């Protein structure tokens, strides 16, 4: 069972458990915006078999080894450390009565849900030999109700088995930076197979709150969408309480009766104090003032006050948008100073080596002088987003690309991307959506109407799910219908970069000729409508203090630390001199395998004193 800092009682619910303050937790919970009082972490040592020939259906696990979940078998942290191809792998572990108790499974919470944070790419799951379900999509969560399987003997030791398929050569799978070659090359890295985020158990009531989604309607109103699962009697009530814990200030209490049918309901939560326009900034979320509002959401019966279910959550009051060539945060222009974050560690690959490492990643980004991160080709662990919410870091949510264009590739990416947007839409730190990067999976978008239609559709379906954030149809070039026009430009000389982005005439020229990398900025009939323009990949300067990697590279190279800092400064001076750039994104945060163009070494140590890097990035 995981414990969390601080508790708040569910209102008028003597029988309900005390709930944690969601915005003041310790960052361990795998679903930080919907907490109950108990959960059981199943990470740790499991049995593992690499089943490349797919024969374990018949032979079982005679040569199984230990693996440390949630680290992929390609990584050293897993204890397996086999970076080759793993088309099929198997996992197995015992689940004890003590773990069921830790999850809260019992009379008050008679249903047990088994959660997976992410399994790459296709998972099938059994408990005690009974098949409980399957899921496809390597970057999004899924869960199964396993109550009936355990009901026959809840006190026994139960066996959980997971089979994961991940064809390393299937280019229709959304895979991001995972290489299809056996060894990493160019900009691609080691693959991730199987479980790479937390596996956990949670007990829930017969009728329960299954999901929450917070939406900023405006500066003074939130909308909560609640999905209710399980057996309902009809006429249940939903109560939402919000409070600003920093000042111990009650903000709102709303109660509504749920309809007799359906499982998804909207609750409007007005924040009365925000109607005082002179004081509304006090509660706004920004990178400089990352204020969060704690909430308790309680499901109540038709009559009486004993809670059916209660969960703790949080939200941030903020709006994002674009207008007048600027990116707007809370209605005002806000410069986006971002860094490209691969979210990759030498010892554990795309799985963070620890939960503390996710917090430290956010802290390092801010210490370097950035107010935003572009999580590149990866749907990041929700605990990273929790720390971005709490510590104040704007995040660009990005889909891991597939490399093929086909009906199957389209179906897979659309489904997984919709799930990712739904999972992360409540985080105030997420300010922009990026479903496609550099025409990956749409390599002929400049001339192919079908690929143009796909990029437009991806952007539009993103807006349909979440109309509150800007969407970029194809980050870097060849935009079809982007709310922000983004450009990737690895020009290494500061003066040359300054000329390209100097003024209005330079902006016009960008749209009238081939841009950097020989790509059109707009395609498929897209027009310059005065959108903000951002330089969302630039820099990438190679510098390797100490031991040298023979295969290490960057887009340009520095001779020593002083030269490296001077190059960074010159490129940022060019960005700062532009009359129209609304933001930028430096490549990249850390060295990542053969890409030695990070501001930090792969182990997160700075290449020069961090103050020098911050001064180059911020100009002061």
Sum up the structure in keywords:
18% helix; disordered N terminus; alpha+beta; 620 residues; six-stranded antiparallel β-sheet; seven-stranded parallel β-sheet; globular
Write a concise synopsis of the structure shown.
The protein is built from 11 helices and 33 strands.
Structure description:
The strands form 9 sheets. Strands 28-27-26-25-33-30-29 form a 7-stranded parallel sheet. Residues 1-15 have low confidence and may be disordered. The chain contains 11 helices and 33 strands. Helix 8 (494-500) packs parallel to helix 10. The two termini are 46 Å apart. With 620 residues, it is of the alpha+beta class. Helix content is 18%, strand content 29%.
**Which radius of gyration do the C-alpha atoms yield?**
25 Å
Q: Provide the structure class.
A: alpha+beta
Q: Low-confidence parts lasting 5 or more residues at pLDDT below 50?
A: 1-15
Structure annotation, total helices: 11
| Helix amount | 10-25%
Please count the beta strands (DSSP E, at least 2 residues each): 33
Shape: globular
Distance between the termini: 46 Å
β-sheet strand percentage: 25-35%
- Global mean pLDDT: 94
Placed side by side, the strands forming the largest sheet appear as: 28-27-26-25-33-30-29
Main β-sheet: number of strands, strand sense, barrel status?
7 strands, parallel
């Amino acid at each position: 069972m995981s414990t969390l800092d601080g508790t708040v009682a569910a209102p008028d619910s003597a029988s309900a458990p005390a709930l944690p303050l969601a915005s003041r937790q310790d960052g361990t919970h795998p679903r930080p915006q919907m907490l109950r009082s108990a959960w059981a972490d199943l990470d740790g040592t499991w049995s593992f078999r690499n089943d490349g020939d797919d024969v374990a259906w018949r032979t079982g696990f005679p040569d199984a080894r230990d693996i440390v979940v949630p680290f992929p078998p390609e990584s050293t942290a897993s204890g397996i450390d086999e970076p080759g191809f793993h088309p099929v792998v198997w996992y197995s572990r015992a689940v004890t009565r003590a773990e069921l108790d830790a999850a809260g499974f019992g009379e008050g919470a008679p249903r047990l849900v088994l959660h997976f944070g992410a399994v790459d790419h296709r998972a099938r799951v059994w408990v005690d030999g009974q098949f409980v379900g399957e899921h496809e999509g390597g970057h999004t969560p899924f869960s199964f109700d396993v109550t009936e399987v355990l009901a026959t003997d809840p006190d026994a030791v139960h066996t959980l088995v997971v089979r994961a398929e991940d064809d390393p050569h299937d280019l229709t799978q959304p895979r991001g930076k995972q290489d299809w070659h056996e060894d990493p090359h160019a900009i691609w890295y080691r693959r991730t197979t199987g479980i790479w985020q937390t596996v956990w158990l949670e007990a829930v009531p017969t009728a329960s709150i299954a999901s929450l989604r917070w939406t900023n309607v405006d500066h003074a109103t939130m909308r909560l969408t609640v999905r209710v699962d399980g057996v309902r009697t009809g006429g249940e009530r939903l109560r939402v309480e919000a409070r600003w814990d920093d000042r111990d200030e009650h903000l709102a209490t709303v109660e509504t009766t749920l309809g007799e049918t359906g499982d998804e309901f909207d609750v409007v939560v007005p924040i009365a104090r925000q109607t005082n326009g002179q004081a509304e900034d006090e509660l706004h979320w920004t990178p400089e003032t990352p204020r969060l509002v704690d909430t308790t959401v309680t499901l109540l019966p038709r009559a009486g006050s004993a809670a059916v279910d209660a969960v703790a959550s949080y939200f941030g009051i903020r709006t994002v948008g674009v207008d007048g060539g600027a990116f707007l945060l809370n209605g005002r222009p806000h410069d986006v100073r971002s860094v490209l974050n691969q979210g990759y560690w030498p010892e554990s690959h795309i799985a963070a080596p620890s939960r503390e490492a996710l917090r430290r990643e956010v802290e390092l980004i801010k210490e370097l002088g950035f107010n935003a991160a572009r999580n590149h080709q990866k749907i990041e662990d929700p605990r990273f987003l929790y720390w971005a919410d709490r510590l104040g870091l704007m995040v660009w949510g990005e889909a891991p690309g597939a490399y093929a264009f086909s009906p199957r590739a389209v179906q897979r990416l659309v489904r997984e991307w919709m799930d990712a947007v739904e999972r992360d839409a409540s985080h105030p730190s997420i300010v922009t959506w990026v479903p496609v990067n550099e025409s990956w999976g749409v390599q002929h978008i400049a001339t192919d109407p079908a690929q143009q239609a796909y990029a437009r559709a991806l952007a539009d379906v993103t807006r349909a799910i979440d109309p509150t954030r800007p969407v970029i149809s194809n980050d870097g070039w060849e935009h079809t219908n982007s709310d922000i026009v983004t450009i990737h430009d690895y020009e290494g000389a500061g003066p040359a970069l300054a000329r390209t982005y100097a003024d209005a005439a330079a902006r016009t020229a960008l749209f009238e000729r081939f841009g950097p990398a020989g790509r059109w900025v707009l395609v498929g009939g897209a027009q310059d409508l005065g959108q903000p323009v951002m330089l969302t990949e630039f820099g990438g300067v190679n510098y390797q203090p100490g031991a040298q990697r023979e295969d290490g590279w960057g887009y340009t190279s520095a001779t020593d630390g002083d030269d490296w800092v001077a190059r960074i400064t010159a490129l940022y001076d060019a960005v700062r001199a532009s009359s129209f750039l609304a933001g930028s994104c430096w490549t990249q945060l850390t060295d990542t395998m053969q890409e030695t163009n990070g501001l930090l070494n792969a182990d997160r140590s700075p290449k020069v004193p961090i103050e020098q890097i911050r001064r180059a990035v911020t100009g002061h």
